[in-house]
């Protein structure tokens, strides 16, 4: 189950990270959030996290850093969505990705096994 979660999250974050650099819509979304200057950093962190999840299949400490970082990034994203009053359905994906990466982190730690 953990391997499926890692691949699902990694593929999703590769898509999200690349999409920021190729889509005007996502750049406009960051403007709407009031965080335009953080868009490139967020996309880069998503790409690094996606790569880290895959490298983490062989190097556990990288998996912990990547999954923990993505969980934190998505919790912050969820907070931003709530703050700008996007509502439940628009906020839900960021919360679910925070949970997914939290699960990856927990299940990959020695205490989670």
Structure description:
- The chain is mainly α and about 110 residues long.
- It has one domain.
- The protein is about 80% helix and about 0% strand.
- The chain has helices spanning about 1-20, 25-35, 40-55, 60-85, 90-110.
- α1 (about 1-20) packs across α2 (about 25-35), α1 packs antiparallel against α3 and α1 packs across α5.
- The chain is globular and about 40 Å long.
Query: DSSP strand (E) fraction?
Result: under 5%
The number of helical elements comes to 5
Order of helices and strands: HHHHH
User: End-to-end span in angstroms?
Assistant: 12 Å
Oligomer: single chain
Structural class: mainly alpha
Key terms:
mainly alpha; 113 residues; 5 helices; 82% helix
How would the blueprint of this fold be written?
Layout: H1 2-22, H2 24-33, H3 39-55, H4 60-83, H5 88-108
Helix pairs in contact: 1-2, 1-3, 1-5, 3-4, 4-5
What would you say about this model in short?
With 113 residues, the protein is an all-alpha fold. It is 82% helix and 0% strand.
């Amino acid at each position: 189950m953990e391997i499926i979660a890692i691949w699902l999250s990694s593929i999703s974050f590769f898509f999200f990270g690349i999409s920021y650099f190729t889509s005007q819509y996502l750049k406009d979304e960051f403007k709407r959030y009031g965080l335009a200057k953080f868009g490139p950093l967020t996309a880069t962190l998503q790409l690094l996290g996606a790569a880290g999840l895959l490298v983490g299949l062989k190097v556990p400490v990288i998996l912990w850093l990547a999954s923990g970082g993505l969980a934190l990034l998505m919790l912050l994203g969820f907070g931003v969505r709530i703050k700008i009053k996007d509502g439940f359905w628009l906020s839900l994906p960021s919360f679910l990705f925070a949970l997914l990466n939290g699960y990856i982190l927990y299940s990959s730690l020695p205490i989670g096994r």
